[in-house]
Task: structure prediction
Amino acid sequence: MNWLTNFVRPKIGSLVRKRESRENLWTKCPSCGQIIFHRDLAKNQSVCPNCDHHLRIGPNDRFANLFDDGAHERIALPEVPTDPLRFRDTKRYADRLKENRSKTGDDEAVIVAHGNIVGQPAVIAAQNFAFMAGSMGLAAGEALITAAREAVDRNAALIVIAAAGGARMQEGILSLMQMPRTVVAVDMVREARLPYVVVLTDPTTGGVTASYAMLGDIAIAEPGALIGFAGPRVIEDTIREQLPEGFQRAEYLLAHGMIDMVVHRHKLRETLGRILSLLMKRTTTDNIPRAATS
Amino acid sequence: MNVFLDFEKPVAELEGKIKELRHVAHGGALNIGDEVARLEARVEQVLRQTYAKLTPWQKMQVARHPDRPHFLDYVGHLLTDFTPLSGDRSYGDDAALLGGIGRFRGRSVVVIGHEKGKGTDGRVKHNFGMAHPEGYRKAIRLMEMADQFGLPVLTFVDTPGAYPGVGAEERGQAEAIARSIETCLGLDVPLIATIVGEGGSGGAIALATGDRVLMFEHAVYSVISPEGCASILWRNPAKARDAADALKLTAMDLMELKVIDVVVSEPLGGAHRHPDRAIELLGNAIDEVLSDVLAESVETRRQRRRDKYLAIGRLT
Result:
């Protein structure tokens, strides 16, 4: 499985993606408009070297940035029913899934891996906004539950990198049911007295925010990330007023007491490592098991 | 003055005729008994036919019917000694989400639910049943109190959704909903939730994570309103009917998906036609499941509640 997920799939992915990458050598910063060479962007963890805007990145980049030397093992996720409602809007949901699978090279929006962060054992569940806006359906719910179980089994922390528009409408009520299901997952980690840290990234809204994403023991946000329950357009349509400056941005949430800190992507690994070592009462250099308390 | 939905027009016409006949007969010695009886039988027949095959979109209209009973009607009829309780103890009181203590068929209980309000003033006062974070925090407070005193919790869900506004966001709408779900899941006491009207998304599940979830026959429960879904996925709000079909939001659909446990029948023509009868039927249904859940030990109950949610949507 590891060989398959870590070696074969990236290989296939790179074969498929090679042709595209020639056109994607340059990226335009969505904030300042600066044209950035892909190698410079990668070196800078996809933070704009000009304006410091944090561009959206996927699970593979997260794992590479956060785990020590990028070393990690993906955790296999259980199979879930595909398209349980046989949903069709302007397109069939089954077709949307296929498109997103070939676009991202992954089966679903949430990918789970384990490894060490500054020596601290951790399971990371990372949400990929590029996969159907990171939306939470049966697969994401099952991924979070699996991640929580892994964290408990490994006596490791659970880190969730949240990025989603919300629940996956194409799974109807079953996507809403992922709210209580993921909260059960969070409670498994809580009951084991292991740290549950959420990193809120751009954007995190809807049912995702209103379930596991807002229940972290520690809530960290990336600079400038849009975080909220209702989307800004929905609010504007409801109140018919212009929204305040910086509304629903990470810094705004910090000022309103909704999160613990806003952390630059370059400092994220170090910050997580420090928090985990403190909460788990471990030293940062060695991986010492917790002392038995009786 | 009765409010008739579009598809109830034939019923409105028949009932109009009955009224007219009665009005005419009132003056003279005309014998209208046979004619009225014939028309009334026809009304019943039309209602039976119409309500037996309501489309999801029509159910949406029934669920939102202004004469449908609301939270205060349920607690008014089902509870004795109802004592409303207010406030989240940190910001304010929310008129869209009400709660209190009372006696349900002899048992002390905590009740919590959305109140949509009646009439224009009432609807505005109760913010159309769209709660702010302080509403969910009041719910959390009342659930914790229920646990403290060992009182079962009955919730009545009827909301278009949690309120999307600046203040709601600033005070942590998402966090309040998430904590409310967490509180539901952690209760030692039974939580019996009923979707009585509109079960709108996160604002609904915040109160509907229960040991048993009941749902009225013509209520709806969905991750997003058909209108919202249509404007996002179809980019056309006029496609709300199609969205209502696709979302599988009726009680029968949700029973099949194992998201709810009991479908509670409504009187012929919907709860808005015979509110008292509907409330009574719901009372009986709640009483029955509550006895079952009370019979479980605390540990079993909590574990079963969790397992019930973990099992939803899994491959068997």
